Amino acid sequence: MTGYLLRRIPTALIVLFVASLLVFAVLRLIPGGPESALAGPDASPEDLAAIRHDLGLDRTFFVQYFSWLGSVLTLDFGTSYQVGGNIGDLVSFGLVNTLVLTVTAGVIAIALALILSLTATIRPNRFVNAILTGVNAVAIALPTFVVGTVLIAVFGVGFGVLPAGGTPPAGLGDDLWITVQYLALPALTLGLPAGAMLARFLTEALQTELVQPYAVTAVATGASRADVVVKHALRNALPSTITAFGLIVGALLGGAVLVEAIFGWPGLGMLTEEGISARDYPLVQILILLSVSVFVLIQLAADVVHAWLDPRIRLAGTR
Amino acid sequence: MFRHPRLRILVALALTTLTVVGATACTAVDAQQGPATRTGPVQRGGELRVGVLGDLSPSKFLQIGTGGPNGDVLANVFDTLVTYPTDSSTPQPSLATSWTLAPDGRSLTLNLREGVHFHDGKPFTSRDVQSSIGAYLGGPWTPQFKRTAAGITGFDVHDPHRVVLTFAHPMSNIFDLLDSAPILDGDTLDELKAGKTFNGTGPFRFSSWTPNSAIELVRNDDYWDGAPPLKTVTFVEANDPKSLYTRLRTGQLDVAEQLTTQDQELATKRYGFTDIEQTGAEAQIYVGVNVENPALADPRVRKAIAYAVDRDRIIDDVYRGSGYPVNVPWPKTSPAYDEAANTTYRRDVAKARDLLRGVGPIPPIRLDYTSTGTTYRIIAEIVQSNLRDIGITVNLQPNEETVQAKKLIGAQFPGLWILQHAFAQYTPSTLAVTAYPFNAAKNSSNYSSPEYTAASEAAWATADPSSPEALAAYRRLDKVWLNDLFLIEIGVVLARLTAAPNVRDIAWDHRQQLHFARTSLTDPDRKA
Q1: Name one GO cellular component term (chain A) (predicted).
Q2: pLDDT per residue over B420-430, tens digit each?
């Protein structure tokens, strides 16, 4: 197992290196540099040149790249051009907010999937199915920004029962109940389509399980459909659904960017948007590299687990 | 139904959660509501929550009009030597209590207020004036009055409560600089540049900043002009004006800046919010012209465009009447304002067509605009339609804000462009030495003329900005703008602020920066 892991790590490192080079290059291909964002429209060309020099942007591409790479390898992520301050601090603050939002959305998605799937499977009548299919289709089809806007209009502005955006004034940890209320609308916006997608996977998996011989036999011996679904079919349907949920987590993290903008939730999405608009190279480079690193690590972990379960993979290439 | 116990528990749990949220979710929202009346004595205390677009940016802290909370933080944490009232550019005392300008206009003696301290307790002296002007000129900032600051050639600071500034030449806009350059603490300058310390002498102390989230200022009880009524000012940051609007509507904010025109109108006309027109903080919307473009090099084409543009429609439809059409940049509050000059070009399609008759075929012209928000796009489409009426084809080119700024500074617009400028609300000479599009030496239009350079210099080097010589120089500038049309003014635009009915006495300055030293809430005990 250790041997397999050691064989896989160099590939992961190469991917990270190539990604860092690509990120660094692509950012500099975007028209308009940080000096324009910093100087403003009343600056002179001489002011722009002075700012470029101060930021070290007048050095050659590879000098800039290796200087930055060296800093990153020593865990010195540098300073944001626009906001100032340590990038590590900015990213960690945004990361906490994004994780809180996506985890809550994930919980909502799981709860929604269980309710919709179990109801549709245990009570398979046409009326219930039509309603559930409708709810499912709407949740998947409606874009996030539409759902978010409608939720704000209804619960934030119309009924005025939930905050229309922002974060708890005293912080997330001050009063859990207030935090839940601030989280409700953005998490629901993010979790609704994910829950609907998950419900489809789970319903399909449960239907497949219910035609298996063990389920048919259980029903024939007089067990109720609910018992068969909850006690037997659900347990067997979960593994494939969990795999699907793993894919949906990526969609949750991606969707968070838009939801954070709509609700003014200061996570990594808002930070990335701000960084790109201001051409804040050091900040955006770290944010994108962080995303790539997360996906590389997940991929590596998945491969390792797969190899652990399947000796053929683990032992391939050792002879 | 739901006979299975586990299933029943699951459904019950979901329904209970929904019911509890529906019934008690008011906690977070109720805390934001309060009765409102603006009568009676000023109430002390409370927290004012101000919604702003964007984040604090220490790298741009001294630049005017950078968006975000920069200007508001600067205006409330720091003081300037003098202040202008919103309706004129007559300096009023602030950290300088009185001043004397030498008859030849080459030196200015400022008597400084005694007993003033920075928030960290350090006393304010004449040396802080010198170091602040030095910081203003130094990096990383590119503030707009840099050229004026560079005209100061000497500082006499031997008396801690008096400073004598000497100039390379008389500068009619010296008070514009003193009204906008904050007095900074030279000892914490590096921390200010890094966004770590904001040590001023202003009515509020900088308390905390959570990037991308909020900034908190707290009352300075020792403020030289009396402690402000408000206990706290919190700037709530957002990236989307819609988000600000909904939070204002639902009571999460007391004041919102930079709402869309439609939302602002809705909030004030339908929902009872206060509409505050920021007179004296005007901006101008204009069509820029690259005079080196062969199609635009002929002044007759530029005049035809000036006749074709439907200024009234742009002001009425796009800005919902918050402004007025002009041909020259001066707002009504400026001593250079000339009603007659503004009647030179009004929409006249026949006249525009007549002008183009002798010109020959005009190839399609590109019109660049900023894609941020919808305002510039709509204006660009109106101008495109206006020019189509006189036979000129316009191709629209949207640019991201950063790209638009880069093209402006680099004079890279191939044809026409739409943007806003400011600085006409100050001493009139400031416009041609401060706003880059008007710069006589180098500008985005690639325009230069000896007459324009001479008129700019004459206006700037006149000691008294309201003297007959100065007024004559402004008229010369008007003549250049109206004849050569390297910038075609559309109109003066007035910024608007939206506030809840329980907010009293918000002040602002020429830079649209809000001042909360006198602001109060009618219900300061409201739970924040």
Answers
A1: plasma membrane
A2: 999 999 999 88
